[in-house]
Amino acid sequence: MLPFKVSVLIFVRNEAGELLLLKREKAPNRGCWSPIGGKLEMQLGESPYECAIREAHEEAGMALTEEDLHLFCMISEKGYEGKTHWLMFLFDCKKPISGLPADFDEGQFAFFKESEVDDLPVPATDRRLLWDIYHQDRSGFTALRANCINGLPEDVVVEQQGD
After folding, report:
1. pTM for the full model?
2. Cα separation, 30 vs 24, whole angstroms
3. How far apart are the C-alpha atoms of 110 and 122, rounded to whole Å?
4. Who wins on pLDDT, 126 or 163?
5. How far apart are CA 121 and CA 110, in angstroms?
6. For domain 4-162, which architecture applies?
């Protein structure tokens, strides 16, 4: 039986509209660029919104409220890397970040134009599942589930899509 983890990703932009991404130094996804985020403190009963607010503060020094966030996607990944089931909540941050946060033990930050993301090393499941949704439908809400066989999402089912 595989463990089940719940996480959030927060898509943050600066005033110029560039995305803040973190080149991760820790597993999973070491060496890949991804939005900021982390795991819920489930033993405390933390909600996805509370987690997103906490992670944005811890990783990027941002002070956010629930009103600064739009939940645009929920993705259930079964058997990611054969090790874990993940339930991910993806948030679009409506509040721009004013500058590049300092690098820390989890990785280094950089800003990228949306058009540059396709050329970056990103996790394979992110490339297949979440970036298209972010680019095309971040103002609505999408729910997906995917079996991740051999590290790649297969049997992707759209459970909900739209406003």
Report:
1. 0.93
2. 5
3. 14
4. 126
5. 13
6. Alpha-Beta Complex (3.90)
